[in-house]
Structures are given as structure tokens and as C-alpha cells.
Amino acid sequence: MTVTAVTPTARAAWTKGATKLLRRPTARLGAGIVAIFLLLTVLAPLLAPYSPFDQDFAAALQPPSAAHPFGTDQYGRDVLSRVMYGTRIALLSILVADGFGLVVGTLLGLIAGFYGKWVDSTVMRIVDVLLAFPYLLLALIIVAALGPGLLNSMIAIGVVYTPQYARLIRGQVLSVKTTEFVLAAQAIGANRARIMLRHILPNSFTPVLVMGTLSAGTVVVETAGLSFLGMGSQPPSPDWGAVLAEGQGYFLTAWWIATFPGLAIFAVVIGFNLLGDALRDHFDPRRRKE
Amino acid sequence: MSGTVTTPMTENRLLEVRDLTVEFATEEGIVRAVDDVSFHIERGETLVVVGESGSGKSVTSLAVMGLVANPPGRIASGTILLRGRDGAVRDLARLDHTALRQIRGNEIAMIFQEPMTSLNPIYTIGDQIIEAIRLHQGKSGREAFARGVEMLELLGIPEPARRMRSYPHQMSGGMRQRAMIAMALSCRPTLLIADEPTTALDVTIQAQILELIKRLQSELGMAVIFITHNLGVAAEIADRIMVMYAGKIVEAGPARAIFHQPRMPYTIGLLNSVPRLGIDRAAQHELVAISGNVPSPRDLPSGCAFHPRCSHFAPALCDGEIPPLETSAPDHFVRCLRWRDIAQQGSSEERR
Questions:
Q1: Which of A135, B39, B213, B335 has a CA between 20 and 30 Å from the CA of residue B307?
Q2: Do the chains contact at A190 and B184, CB–CB below 8 Å?
Q3: Is the pLDDT of residue B184 over 50?
Q4: A145 touching B, CB under 8 A?
């Protein structure tokens, strides 16, 4: 018997997967934007020309120039530096809000789909109720209950994002649950927790990964939105939404204050959306062009 | 452990199923997938369960494993007695989940039809074999790995240590089925349930897997319940054969008797629908398909469930009462009101 042994190492498989994923230009663009964004969060103190908080009234409301490429705001703070430091808050909002939705939603959906019966009905009705609210309204209600602040606004967005993850993973679990390898795992005597966490969850997780990436962009918009409304991070935080709100009043005279954080939000959303689309195509064999 | 039974079971019997009925709740009402089925298996013996799709053969095996999905299914009545390694007899139909888990994979193992889908795609073969070993035997990771390599070697897989690190998609169907068998046998079960393990494989691979199961059976001394719709496969390995139709046993007996003196028209029909090997062309009978389809379990015909398809159908007799399982010869059982007539007919034909 001839054996064609193909046992690539895990590292080789990853490299191969990544190369395939990044074959399309839009995927590369998305990954590039996300990479720049992540780099900025780490390197902001090194790259920012000024402190995001230092006021300089002599230099207030200056248009973009060589000294202040994005101009200055009404307190003379450098808008470029504020936008750069804002990446940290944006990343934090992705980690906290999107992470909260992903973890809690996945757990709820997994339990609902796996146990079925009344557990499923109860969890999914709660999810339905949450989905019935308009996003922003629900987030505002939660922030109002918890009190304004950066962390509370992120938790609020996280709660808003939980139902979609729960629904998605539940559907996956329902189909994976009936596969033969789950029956085979039962047949070797695996207990329920083991079957749920080791066999069903990893096989249900791919679409969640895609949704997590796609949501990362919108989470940034929504956290910024809450800050814009004064429910999120408070001044003098360089949160993009807060900077946008401050610049709003000067928009006709000093357009740069609100425009650059707006562009930053736009870029991050585009970046994560392109990357998410690429991931979805990558994991979905029907959409894969080969 | 609970569920210890005092009802006597003959010493050499490993498993004895008595009056097993499995029901499923459906939109149209309760459906009996397995209806009052009784059988037994002795140590080291091979029992082949033959039947078409929907005959209840798979559900019977799942019931023995305690894996009938509930809901919608449930074991409505009956006992499933298993003699454990410790010699105690337990009723699997009444054991709790925890106790059943200690038996599954350990004393009874199961292999499935589709080697493509019965292995988890995201773990290596080794991970999955090691999981089976570690669930039941207090072995270290290293010991379990060594045991896995040993099992793959026993199954004739080349380069076993390397194969332990392969993912299912990197292996052929036959290799995957061997890996599945390795996983099932890694804890040296006393009973192996094989649910159509060769159906999805090429004929040449089928033969290899059958040989393998036979060899392992004699080496490990385990009993095998082999489920198939293929009588050719049954002829290869069966000690005894049990034919199921519409959830009931319709004929059961030693393999030789089933092949040479079939009594139930359904069994005869099955035999006439496949070519027999070892007979020269001229003597080969014409292949005849059994007309009609398996009845829906929601809407079974009255009387004998096979009567609408039966060439020996006698009006007012066969569609009246449900025939009992009668003893036609020692250890040979048949569920047909007309088996004596049919037997006579058969022997007169043979004389001609």
C-alpha cells in the first residue's frame, strides 16, 4: 500500500491559510488598516507629536499646518495626537464591548442549543426581547441604569451585541449536535460538558469569528456614538466620539476638529469590514473561488 | 452501581435484550421504531442484524448503547442485560447517565457507517484515540499515545506514530474507518457494535475491513453485533443472523440455516435479490427485487407488516392478526403464519 503522507506542521498550515486569505487586494487593504490601527494603539506615545491633553490657548483653533497636521481644537490641543491616542480607547471598546458580546452570547447560544427544551426556549425568548429594541435605545437605557462612563458604555454595547452572537452560535450548535462525530464522542463515553466544549463549540465557532471581526468596526462607531451623546467617556478623554462632539460646535469655522476623528472611525470600520468579509469568504467554501 | 439485576441470564451470554420497545414522538403521533425485540449474544460471537432502512436495526443498537436521542425517542419498555467485566449483570435500560458513560466506549464500543463524518474534523486521529483511552483508563498522556500507536499498528496502518498526528481529512476513507475502529477498540471492549461500517467504502476496502474485524474479534475475544443491509457481508462474518422488518424480528437463526433454509418470505426475497457466489452461471437463479417499499412506521399494514409485498400473501390470514415468532427448528425462529407451507413448497421445488 502506498501512503502519500501529507502532515504539514501547524505553523505551515497557518502560513498557508494566511497567504490564501490575503490573496485578494481588498483583504490586504482591510488587514493593512487593522494592522496600522493596532500599531497606533501601541505606539501612540512614541508617534504623537504632542500630549493629547496639553492645552495651548495661544495655538487654539489653528488649521492644519506642518506643526499641527490635523490642526488644533478650541483649547489648542493637537488633533492628530488626540486621534492617535483615541485608537487606544477604540481598541479597548472592541475588546470590552465586542468581547463581552462574543463571550456571553456564545455561552448563552451554546447552552441553549445544546440543552434544548425549556433552556433553549427561555434563553432565546430573552434574546428575542433584546433584539426587539433599537440598538442605540437599548444601549442608552443600559447606560442610564449603570450611569455614564467609558466602561459602562462599553458594557452597554456588549449587552446590545450579545443576542446576535447567541442566535448565530445556537444555530450552529443545533446542526453540529446531530453530526456523527458527536454521536461517536458519546459512544466512547464522553460526558456532556466534554461534548459541548470540546466537540461542539470548536466546530461551531467559525462564523462567530467572522461576526466578531465584522462587529469590531461597528462597535467602535457605537461606543463613539455614546461618547458623542455624552454617555460614554467624559472630557478631556481623547475618545473619537467625544472629540467629534467637541468639534461639532466649531464645524463651520474649524472643520478639522470633527473631521479627522470622523475619518479615523470611518477607516477603522472599513478596515474591519473588509477583513471580516475576507474571513467569511475564506471560511465559506461556497464563496471561495478556486 | 445501580441497576444490578437478579433475573438469571445464562452464564455464557454477554448481552441479552428482552422485549425491547423504542418509541419516537413525531408530529403524527407516537411511532414504534423497535417493537418488542428480544435477542442475545454470547461471548466472542458475531450476530448480524439484517434489514432495510427504517427496519429498526440502527435504533436497536443505539438503544443498547443508551444513545437513543431523548426527545424525541425513548425506550418504552424492555430490559437490556449486559454482563460486565466484573461478572455483574446490569440492565442498561435502567442505568443512569454516569453509569452508562462508564460502560460506553469501555465495555461496549461502537463504530459508524460514515468514516468521513464520525471523526471530529478539528482534532488529529491521535487526539481522538487518546481521548477514548483516557476517558476510561487512568493513563498518562504518554502512555495513552503509546497505546494509540499500538492500536493503529494492530489495525495495519503504516507509520502509526506519524498517523497519530494526522487530521481526518488527510486520510482516505478506509484509513479513517481503521482509525475509527482503533478508537473503538482502544479500551478492549467485550462487545463491538458495528453499524454498517463498510457501507460507505469501496468493495476492496470493505473486504479488508471485514477481514480486520474478524481477526481482531478472534484476537481480542469480543462479541460483535454487525448491522448491515448487505447479505454478502452477512455471509462473510455471521455466526447468527437476525432479520428485522418494520421494527420487528421476522427471522433469526444460525447463519447456515438462514442461508440454506430461509423460512420467512422476506428473507427469501432478500436472498433472491443478490447473486450467490460459488454457483456456476447456469444454476444461478434469476435476481428478483422485492416489490414495493418498506411501510411507514406511522402507518403499518394490518397483520403481518410484510403482507402487501409478499408473494405468499393469503387474504384474510396474513392481514388479520400479527403473526407470533415461532420456532421452526432448534434455535431458528420465524414470524410467518405460512412458514410450514412455504417450507414444504421450497423442499418440493428442490426435489424437482
A1: B39
A2: no
A3: yes
A4: no
Q: Inspect the interface and report whether the beta carbons of B101 and A189 lie closer than 8 Å.
A: yes
- Our CA-based measurement puts residue B286 at a distance from the nearest CA of chain A, in whole angstroms, of 38
How many residue pairs bridge chain A and chain B with CB atoms within 8 Å of each other?
74
User: Is the model's pLDDT at A4 over the cut of 80?
Assistant: no
**B121 to chain A, minimum CA–CA distance in Å?**
8
Cβ of A189 within 8 Å of Cβ of B135? The answer is yes
pLDDT over threshold 90, residue A7 = no
User: Residue B196: what residue type?
Assistant: E
CA atoms of B127 and B121, how far apart (whole Å) = 11
Cβ <8 Å between B170 and A180: no
Residue A290 confidence class, pLDDT cut points 50, 70, 90: very low
ipTM: 0.81
Decide if pLDDT at A108 tops 70.
Answer: yes
DSSP assigned state of B189 = -
